[in-house]
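Troubleshooting: if your tokenizer reports a length mismatch, compare your output against this known-good record of 223 residues.
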Amino acid sequence: MNVATRSTPPRFGARAPRRRGAEGDEANEQGTGRLRVAARANGDYSDLAAEFAATKPDLFFLAEHETVANRLAVAMRNAGVMVPFFGPNVLKPFPHLATFDFSVEGPYYTNVIGDAGVKPAIAAMADRYQDKFREAPTLYAAEAYDAAGVILDALRRASPNLAREATLRAIAATRDYSGITGPVTFDAHGDALVREIGIYKVENKERTFLGFVNDLLAAAPRR
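Known-good structure output:
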């Protein structure tokens, strides 16, 4: 598979190691795919779209802010790229990456943000928030709710020593905290483990939840 991708360089600090390039090289060696990366354009995406079209991708992954992604998506279609688009952050403003004027499949999205339409515990929190504040919670409300819960749980475990270092150690030691987004556990680097990644597809101009990655992989036919 030939996968074309576009992402924005970091605005602050040093560039992170190019893991995607390494993965693309590994995929090439295994004969399973190719990865091509392009840098930011300056408003006119026709040249960039033509560059991608020349690679004849089977899939186009776009890790970009929606204000850029939506313009580039149209430019790609006008350049003749009719393969599925795949992007992150499904719950951001819709129609992210959608090109309804073209008869094409998708787009598809990944999502790690708590979705009230998928998880009943998040929906219940959103209803309580709506009832109290008379407005819908913001995009990352479920994550903020769990973050506050993790901190409060750590404070309870660290008590009576609530000094900064003791509290940080208690947070780092969090294991299987029962959050509304799912269980929360931190590894030695402070990264959350076992984060569910949802996959969505646009069908009939509506976003449809297809399932979580691990569940979809488990159900996929074996080659």
